[in-house]
Amino acid sequence: MLALLVVALGALAVAYAIVVPRLEARLVDAKLDQLEKDSRLVAANVPLDLTTEAQSFAEEVSNERGARVVIYQVVSRRPLLLLIRGDSRVGSSLDVERNAVVRRAVATRRSRRGTLIKEDQRFAEVASPAANRQAVVVLLRDSLVDPLSSVQFVKRRLILAGLIALGVALILGYAGASMHARRIRRLERAADRIAGGEFDEPAVDRGNDELGQLAGAFERMRARLENLDRARREFIANASHELRTPLFSLGGFLELLDDEELDEPTRREFVKTMREQVERLTKLATDLLDLSRLDAGRLRLEWEPVELRSVAQVLADEFRVLAGPGGHRVDVVADGDPVALGDELRVLQAGRALVDNALVHTPPGTRIAIRTWADGATAYLSIADDGPGVPPEHAAHVFDRFYRASSDLASGSGLGLAIARELTAAMGGNVTLETRAGQTVATLVLRTTPAFSREQTDGVFT
Ligand SMILES: Nc1ncnc2c1ncn2[C@@H]1O[C@H](COP(=O)(O)OP(=O)(O)O)[C@@H](O)[C@H]1O
Ligand SMILES: [Mg+2]
User: Fold this and answer.
1) Which of 114, 222, 286, 340 lies in disulfide reach of 446, CB 3.0 to 4.6 Å?
2) What is the distance between the alpha carbons of residues 332 and 381, in angstroms, rounded to a whole number?
3) Of the bound ligands, which one is closest to the alpha carbon of residue 412?
4) Residue 352 and residue 337: Cα distance in Å, rounded?
5) Residue 86 — pLDDT band, cuts 50, 70, 90?
6) Cα dist. 204→211, 226, 357 in Å?
7) What is the pLDDT of residues 375-409, one digit of tens each?
């Protein structure tokens, strides 16, 4: 508002400073030009006998030209006669001395001009020597009030314009400032709400300007925080639920074990189930810890060459032990010696989650193949099974945390694929799952580098 005011007034002040003095100078000059022309004309016609005719001549000229006429006759540098609009009197040399214009005209014998202020009024005067009369000088004096009235007019108009500009600047400035202030305050309230954990009310501003863009950024932040907040709540709810189920079951078995009349085989059965629940809890606790580290970005990773062929072998060996005589068959198909870049333990952990799925979510008798290969800068480890696969309606969600496509008891907490994917993402890779009835392939996609190509690793790492 202040800036608008200063600009408006500054512009007017500059206009005033440029226009008014120039206009005034021009008008005064024009008046002086006209007076000079008149005074020369009068000087050329001054009557010969000044004592008798000068008075009526001066009066006549005065009426005709509208200007005051004074005729000086200087004898021996003394003015003899002084006529002012009919008043005739003999003046003294002082009269000549007093008037600078007359003095200069007498001295130079040329027309001289000037302005003076008398009784608060400005006058223009021109003194011209009479052409053929050595000692006579005619002075014409006229008020500058009329010609300068247009200057007054311009001044008044400029001041009026200034006042109007001032008013407009005030109104516009105030309106603009208060509108912006209102929008900023609305954004501020939105920020406060977000800071206070209320994410339901969107931050809106329909403006197209920077404030509008800021509000847009706020809104994106709010939406993202809302999602994060929802994910956090869901995570806590899911995690507590997952923890509670085995804990309840453990509590139930403990009570049953208290029964004195329990026969030995039943007791052993109970203890076995309890051990399984404890294993499940331990696994869940480890998974949750990994997830929280992944979320906080505090997962420590070793960067080392990982030979996928040996990873596949370790997985197959573990798998055979787990599968037992259940009837799952496993083959390892290694194509070359792909070397990935990452943390071997974490690659094993992710691979284990995939193998676990191929074991848990397929019926006995299923064939499972673990393959490894490399393609340019990418190394692959895939686990394929010919089980029933994931139903299409679930396929899009299997990588979500706690998401389970089947509700069979063998299922884990739904964290396996989520952790596998996040772990490999931390190593710059990915996990993909292609599934249809009869064929499911889960693949670890990992980075490799030319530095870890076979030729170089041969001597160093094997
Ligand atoms: N090889 C597979 N065959 C069939 N279903 C699978 C396979 N792998 C994953 N799934 C489905 O995807 C879901 C998510 O897998 P995962 O994240 O490992 O959780 P969990 O194994 O703990 O249930 C599983 O519940 C399962 O229904
Ligand atoms: Mg699993």
Assistant:
1) 340
2) 10
3) 1
4) 20
5) very low
6) 10, 16, 46
7) 989 999 999 999 999 999 999 999 999 999 877 65
